[in-house]
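Journal club prep, shared notes

We agreed each person brings one worked example of a sequence with its structure written out as tokens. Mine is NAD(+) diphosphatase. I'm keeping it raw so we can talk through how to read the token line rather than staring at a rendered picture. Sequence first:
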Amino acid sequence: MTSDVCTGFQLDSAPLLSRSTVDRREALRDTPDGAAELWSGGRLVLVDARGRTPVTADSGLDFQPTADFGERPAPNAVLLGVEDGVSYWALRTEHDGAQEGWRDLRSAGGLLSDTDAGLLTTAVGLLGWHDNARYCAVCGAATTRVRAGWARHCTGCDREEYPRTDPAVICLVHDGADHVLLARQPIWPKERYSVLAGFVEVGESLEACVRREVAEEVGVDVSHVRYLGSQPWPFPRSLMVGFAAVADRTQPLHPADGEIEDARWVHRDTVRAALESEAGAVDGLRLPPGVSIAYRMLRGWAAWEN
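Then the structure, token by token:
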């Protein structure tokens, strides 16, 4: 292996759901008067149970004035952040956003501005956590929202709980030359292939997780594990931590039964063609959507002149 293998490629650009511009203003979460002051003149994004929100014709979030929901913060509203003196909040709506104009992160995340993408990513993840944290994990008593929606307080044992993020590694495995290892899960759309990923286990480092997951999913040993970047993936609460690694292409592939339907080495030219194609699959290969960090990783590798 040459030293270039270790330095190699980078992401071609920041992952689309990693973009964010607002100040989260943690200090104001604990001050009722401060939150009330921020609420005045603020903007509110409504999110339905499936993570959909109104998106305008020019691909921006359709904010509602906070004043339409009262003079003080709505009980279930969460503070997303502040920018240029304007506060941004999110609120779960019972309205079914199935009609035209309501879109989720997967379909609209790549079209939103840096500010809107960060706001909706945070809103989907934070509201989803609240939906599933209504009872204390220690004593079972009901919990209530505190700190402008950034914590829950147990009414039984006074325990305070904070939003959880589950780290997962996602790794682009290449041979140090012109081939990348791609695989597909049986539940994915036809011909969809992507890089390998898996959740980090308790007591495990990120690098160790990369090695374990690749070995478990396709039976291949990797080296030169290297960090690339990260992206929140609030489906429901993951953080995708991207890596690159190198493997010997002569190793036999053993897809994990029931988890990996197929795995194969793909030449750089095929990946480039798939990235440029607007017609769909190229040689039976469809790449992950542009909103994912996997797409940014593949673009970075495809452009790499090693």
